[in-house]
Amino acid sequence: MHCHLRHYTLYVVAIILGGLLSVVACDSSSRRAAMLAVLDEADSLNRNYIPITSDSLLLEATGYFDSHGTPNERLRAHYLLGCAYRDMEEAPRAIECFLDAIAKADTVGNDCNYHVLACVYAQLANIYHQLLLFSQEIEARRLSAYYEKLSGNIYFALYENKMSAGAYILLNKEDSAEILLQNVIRLYRENGYEQDAIQASNMLLYIYINHSNHLPEVRNLINQYEEKSNHFDEFHELHGTFKQFYYYKGMYYERVHQLDSAELYYRKICHPEMGITSESSMYKGLLSVFTKLHQADSIAKYAQLYCTTNDSSIAIKDQERTAQMATSYNYNRYQKQALDNARTANQRLYIVVALLSVVILGIITAFFFYQQYKRKKKVLEELEREYEEAQNNFVRIKRQLQQLDEKYKDVLNSLQKEDTESQAIITKLNDQHEAEKEQLTQELHSYTERVELLERQLKISQYARASLPFLNLGIVRRIKLYAEDGRRQLSENDLNTLADAVKEHFPDLTTDLEGAPAITPLAKNVCLLAMLNLKPGEIVNLLGISSSQVSNLRKDINATLFHENTTRTLYQNLSQRYKILSS
Q: What's the mean pLDDT when you consider all of the chain?
């Protein structure tokens, strides 16, 4: 009746809180209070061993605290959600929630709730025990005990260590279980938990009872239990599950060949609410006694009862349930692994696609610059051919003009020897000569201007051909992008890469800079950026220095290399001497 009332209370609280959340969703403090109320109610049910039968509100609370809660609140929310799935017998989802809770804990924080974290590991250990995953159970209980110690809960830490001993026994590691139990029993007594030490001694009985060399220890443990245990009634009898002690005492008497006493204590195991374990122990003990007494009828009777007990439908159902839970756990674990592997494969595929895209883009870029280089080379060759043709025409016309002057002088000299009647012819010849000379002079002037223009264009094209591979370098393009952005500074690696590139393409400039002691490393960096025709303000941003420093360094470089005490002609001087074209 109490359990149903608590369930009804949970559903009523859920309805009320749902209505409250829909009305005051905009009020964060009210929403937080409502979510905390959900956790408190679930925590209350969990502490009172009342199953939590719904996960809807806990899912909402977990989502809320994942976004707005502290690490301890997230830890608590995921822990209680895992408890809900534990009560709903959904082991895989419970394990997932408990692992999420562990991930949410801030174990390095001063306010970490170590007790709740220890409870998470304890619940994980219980599920691992149900799934027969004893190695995982041992590790979970070790961590639970560790965090219980940090929280100051020595009693629960010892309890987890005692439960770990049971897992060691099931793994047939009795030596480890013995050492662990002896330590637990000692610590129980040191901390005043005498009855818990007595109960833990029963597990040592289970280990020692099958080894004849430990029979004195078994006798001593039996005496301690009978003298100090508070589970005996006024008639010095045990009840319920505590009757399992009689099995160990019966086995002891069987080992020391007191079969009548052994039979007596095996029979004392029987009680109305006896479970499968106790029933199986009783029949096994009696079968062993009557076998040694050679009583065939009793042997047949208890052999059949012992076999029937072990093959009962209840045991079979328990085995099937365990197998189903283990299969479910393995399926979900492998499914999660498969999803993780698929996600990893997709990430690798994205990386490969990205790398291929970068490679293809690089090839396209290289092809584009190669085509641009070929076009510029073709234009330069055409310009050189045109320049050579114009220069030849210039020489030809100049020679014709010279020949015209010489011819005119010869004709004039010959006519001057004739009489005065030839003056009219001389005048006419003079006019004709002047007209032809004027025409040739104008044509010569035109070709002179053309030759000068072509010379300038040819010089620029030659500079461009020398600078084009340099300008296409990644470091040069990156620096110009940084300069346009105005918010990026060059690293020392960028400056070293630029210096190496200049040394390869313009070795004379590198030699001159290295041969001038007055030029500091900072001035050298300013010079390398100035040769890219960058503005002083851009150099300031790229190097992170003041504008006055840049101005002074540019002036020093121009004075050292070109003997000009100004900054205006630095790029022009660098371009002319080292055949640099950067813009």
A: 80
Nearest of 166, 174, 154 to residue 125 by alpha carbon: 166
> Do 457 and 383 contact (CB within 8 A), yes or no?
yes
Alpha-carbon Rg for the chain, nearest whole angstrom, is: 50
How far apart (Å, rounded) are the C-alpha atoms in residues 218 and 208? 6
DSSP states of 398-420:
HHHHHHHHHHHHHHHHHHHTS-G
Q: How far apart are CA 272 and CA 275, in angstroms?
A: 9
pLDDT digits (tens, 9 = 90+) for 293-318: 887 777 777 677 777 777 654 555 55
DSSP-derived secondary structure for 489-522: ---HHHHHHHHHHHHHH-HHHHHHHHT-TTS-HH
In degrees and rounded to multiples of 5, residue 579 shows phi and psi of 55, 55
DSSP string, 42-99: HHHHHHTT------HHHHHHHHHHHHH--HHHHHHHHHHHHHHHHHTT-HHHHHHHHH
Q: How far is CA 274 from CA 99, 153, 202, 267, 316, in A?
A: 37, 34, 19, 12, 18
Residue 274 parent element (H or E): none
Cα–Cα dist 562/570, whole Å? 8
Would the pTM of this model clear 0.85, i.e. be above it? no
Give the Cα separation of 327 and 92 in Å (integer).
10
Token reading at 306: 């012992």
The amino acid occupying position 201 is S
Determine the average pLDDT of the residues in 482-493.
89
Q: Alpha carbon 85 to chain centroid distance?
A: 29
Angle at 17 between CA 12 and CA 23, to 5 degrees: 135
- Scored b (16 or more CB within 10 A) or e, 16-44 reads ebeebbeeeeeeeeebeebbbbbbebbbe
Q: How confident is the model at residue 206 (pLDDT cuts 50, 70, 90)?
A: confident
Higher pLDDT, 8 or 526: 526
Task: Classify each residue of 213-230 as buried b or exposed e, where b means 16 or more C-beta atoms within 10 Å of its C-beta.
Answer: ebeebbeebbeebeeebe
The single-letter DSSP state of residue 486 is: S
Phi and psi at residue 167, in whole multiples of 5°?
A: -65, -40
Residue 529 has pLDDT above 80, yes or no: yes
Distance CA 559, CA 565 (A): 5
Contact 142, 128 (CB under 8 A): no
Q: What are the b/e assignments for 160-196, b being 16+ CB within 10 Å? A: bbbbbbbbbbeeeebeebbebbeebbebbeeeebeeb
The stretch 246-263 carries a mean pLDDT of 82
164 and 178 Cβ atoms separated by less than 8 Å: no
In the block, residue with structure tokens 């004027």: 438
Task: Quote the Cα angle for 292-297-298, to 5°.
Answer: 55
Predicted local confidence at residue 3, as pLDDT? 45
Task: Give the pLDDT confidence score for residue 451 in this predicted structure.
Answer: 64
